[in-house]
């Protein structure tokens, strides 16, 4: 047992040690891509008749982006101060993790019930509906939620921006809807598979009730399949967060970085600093999320090394 | 041993192959939904191919703007009086192109990397798998966005950009499958017969993992379509490179999907019809994928045919007591 715990700690330590290296690679890749823009390859002058400005040399721009990252000058304009940057990071963290929490809170029980009651039409309908829910694009899901809950049923006051608890409900739901779909599907599949194993039969034979069997014996192995699928989905979750921020006018990192393709248009983006900072921030989020997933996987899976 | 016995053996092999195919088709049909999805996907494909040939670019007529669905305009008309059904029909091809091209490119890259890692093993495997891990932990869609900006906004470029960054899952799957094939005796016999690495990869490994890759491809088309909707929601068409104009050939269903939200009050058909077509398309793909998974799983028990109206003519089994080898 102690050996296993040590192995887990060593694995996690290795993962954490690799993160800064990967982030540095991302910054370099961002600058390399920035040097491929038409503005850098074929520089043109803004004023006709004057010679075009020389693009920044590659390693200078890499240095500049490391300085920008280190000094928290992450925005696209100088008015975006450190406080705003930290606040936008906080908002995006709440949005991402809150949506994951809500999705797990709704998706996993629905998946378990759909697996336990294969003949019940209600839970099968819930399972099918959640798959549909996961396929609706987040920009459209935001519209549907606003018009249903705010303007149709008047359950939630219509607001924009960030500050109160009410502001957070709909954006979190928008991102959560994407995750609920596959959470239900994979929990259901995992649960169905696990419930046929012999150790479940043994637990039942010892007199455990259905709830006890599910919570104590079946849940942990059933969730490992979900977690392995969930790792590759984290970038998509973050992108859904960006779109939810746009739809509800929330000052998160997506808004701060001005993630629209217009940002990457020629002169503003010639040095690649904006792209590399964007890649850095998103890469950081994704790597932290993946690390948490790895830890959860090691904790859930009894066979994991 | 006579020739008659040999021909009988061949006939049996053909029969058993036919029977296996029939059983596979029954596993595919068992749920019912995959067949519906397949039919719907075929209809959409035909519409996407034939539609642009039989329709014209929808005309702009502001006196016909925002009409609700009627017999002349079954899906209503848009902001500038264009017929929405025509727009959807003409935009379907580009949308399917995004999905299929993106999935094909990502599966091609992932398959190459995965098989190379699985067959070569050793340090090649280690390097390629670290590369795959890296590809999992980077914000791929931002790079895809960048590729769209540099190459210009079109259906093909969107598919290309997503395909170039979304190969990691495929690589991991292909490596796992290739490893499972490598550890079998078939690979040893191929090596002993003097097959080169390339020969083994293309003739031995690829055919064995092709069916699983087909399933992955179908799910990947759905995934690429979802990613492209989020990409397009960030307005990549208003780029200085294209002068703020939509380039020709970018009449996409996904653009309609993006523009419908603003018209929700009052003109709901502009929102629901493109969304409905998109979602039904993706759900049909998911159903087909589920059916293919069932098809590839021979262990799955088949239900008895409840609705068999006629009995299938079966040849009399003559072979039970006959010695096959003469």
Automatic annotation (TrEMBL), chain A:
Q: Tell me the keywords, alphabetical order.
A: Cell membrane, Membrane, Transmembrane, Transmembrane helix, Transport
Task: Tell me the InterPro entries matching this sequence.
Answer: MetI-like, MetI-like_sf
Molecular function terms, GO-annotated: dipeptide transmembrane transporter activity
Q: Which Pfam families match?
A: BPD_transp_1
A GO cellular component annotated for this chain's UniProt record is:
plasma membrane
Q: Which SUPFAM superfamilies match?
A: MetI-like (SSF161098)
Q: Does the keyword Cell membrane apply?
A: yes
For membrane topology, the record states: Multi-pass membrane protein
| Domain of life per record | Bacteria
Protein family (similarity comment): Belongs to the binding-protein-dependent transport system permease family.
Protein name, entry field: Peptide/nickel transport system permease protein/oligopeptide transport system permease protein
TrEMBL record, chain B:
Q: Which InterPro entries does this one have?
A: BP-dependent_transpt_permease (IPR050366), MetI-like (IPR000515), MetI-like_sf (IPR035906), OppC_N (IPR025966)
Please verify whether the record's keywords include RNA-binding: no
Q: Where in the cell is it found?
A: Cell membrane
Does Membrane count among this protein's keywords? yes
What GO cellular-component annotations does this UniProt entry give? Answer: plasma membrane
Q: What is its main location?
A: membrane
One BP term from GO:
transmembrane transport
Domain (ABC transmembrane type-1): give its ranges: 92-296
User: What are the UniProt keywords, alphabetically?
Assistant: Cell membrane, Membrane, Transmembrane, Transmembrane helix, Transport
| Topology class, membrane | Multi-pass membrane protein
Transmembrane segments in this chain: where?
A: 28-50, 96-124, 131-150, 213-234, 269-288
Query: What SUPFAM superfamilies does UniProt report for this protein, alphabetically?
Result: MetI-like (SSF161098)
- Would you identify the family this protein belongs to, as annotated? Belongs to the binding-protein-dependent transport system permease family.
This chain belongs to which protein, by name?
A: Peptide/nickel transport system permease protein/oligopeptide transport system permease protein
């Amino acid at each position: 047992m102690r050996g296993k715990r040590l192995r887990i700690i060593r694995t996690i330590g290795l993962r954490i040690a690799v993160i800064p290296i990967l982030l540095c690679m991302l910054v370099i890749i961002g600058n390399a891509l920035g040097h491929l823009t038409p503005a850098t390859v074929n520089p043109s002058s803004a004023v006709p008749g004057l010679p075009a400005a020389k693009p920044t040399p590659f390693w200078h721009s890499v240095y500049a982006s490391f300085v920008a990252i280190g000094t928290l000058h992450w925005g696209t304009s100088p008015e975006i101060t450190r406080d705003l940057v930290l606040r936008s990071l906080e908002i995006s963290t709440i949005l991402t993790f809150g949506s994951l929490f809500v999705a797990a809170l709704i998706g996993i029980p629905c998946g378990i019930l759909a697996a336990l009651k294969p003949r019940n039409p209600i839970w099968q309908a819930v399972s099918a509906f959640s798959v549909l829910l996961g396929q609706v694009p987040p920009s459209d899901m935001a519209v549907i939620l606003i018009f249903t809950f705010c303007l149709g049923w008047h359950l939630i006051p219509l607001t924009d921006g960030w500050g109160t608890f009410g502001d957070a409900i709909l954006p979190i739901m928008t991102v959560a809807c994407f995750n609920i779909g596959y959470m239900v599907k994979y929990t259901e599949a995992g649960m169905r598979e696990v419930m046929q194993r012999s150790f479940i039969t043994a637990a039942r034979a010892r007199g455990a009730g259905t709830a006890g069997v599910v919570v104590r014996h079946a849940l942990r192995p059933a969730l490992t399949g979900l977690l392995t699928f969930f790792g590759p989905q984290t970038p998509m979750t973050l992108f859904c967060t960006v779109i939810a921020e746009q739809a509800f006018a929330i000052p998160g990192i997506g808004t701060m970085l001005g993630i629209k393709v217009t940002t990457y248009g020629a002169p503003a983006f010639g040095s690649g600093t904006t792209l590399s900072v964007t890649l850095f921030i998103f890469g950081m989020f994704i790597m932290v999320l993946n690390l948490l997933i790895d830890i959860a996987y090691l904790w859930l899976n009894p066979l994991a090394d | 041993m006579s020739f008659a016995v040999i021909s009988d053996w061949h006939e049996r092999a053909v029969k058993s192959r036919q029977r296996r195919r029939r059983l596979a088709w029954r596993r595919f049909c068992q749920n019912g939904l995959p067949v519906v999805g397949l039919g719907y996907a075929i209809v959409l494909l035909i519409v996407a191919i034939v539609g642009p040939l039989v329709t014209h670019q929808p005309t702009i007529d502001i006196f016909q703007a925002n009409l609700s669905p009627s017999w002349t305009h079954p899906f209503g008309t848009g902001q500038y009086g264009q017929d929405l059904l025509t727009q959807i029909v003409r935009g379907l091809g580009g949308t399917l192109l995004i999905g299929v091209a993106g999935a094909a490119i990502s599966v091609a890259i992932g398959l190459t990397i995965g098989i190379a890692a699985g067959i070569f093993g050793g340090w090649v495997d280690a390097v390629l798998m670290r590369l795959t891990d890296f590809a999992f932990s980077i914000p791929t869609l931002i790079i895809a966005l960048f590729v769209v900006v540099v190459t210009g906004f079109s259906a093909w470029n969107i598919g290309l950009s997503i395909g170039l960054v979304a190969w990691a899952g495929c690589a991991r799957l292909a490596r796992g499958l290739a490893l499972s094939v490598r550890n079998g005796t078939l690979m040893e016999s191929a090596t002993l017969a003097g097959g080169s690495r390339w020969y083994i990869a293309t003739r031995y490994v690829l055919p064995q993992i092709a069916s699983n890759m087909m399933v992955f491809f179908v799910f990947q088309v759905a995934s690429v379509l979802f990613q492209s909707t989020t990409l397009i929601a960030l307005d990549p068409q208003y780029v200085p490179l294209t002068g703020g104009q939509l380039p020709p050939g970018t009449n996409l269903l996904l653009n309609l999907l993006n523009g419908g939200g603003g018209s929700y009050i009052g003109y709901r058909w502009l929102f629901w019809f493109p969304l409905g077509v998109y979602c039904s398309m993706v759900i049909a793909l998911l159903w087909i994928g589920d059916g293919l998974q069932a098809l590839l799983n021979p262990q799955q028990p088949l239900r008895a045919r409840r609705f068999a109206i006629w009995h299938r003519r079966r040849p009399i089994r003559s072979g039970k007591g006959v010695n096959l080898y003469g």
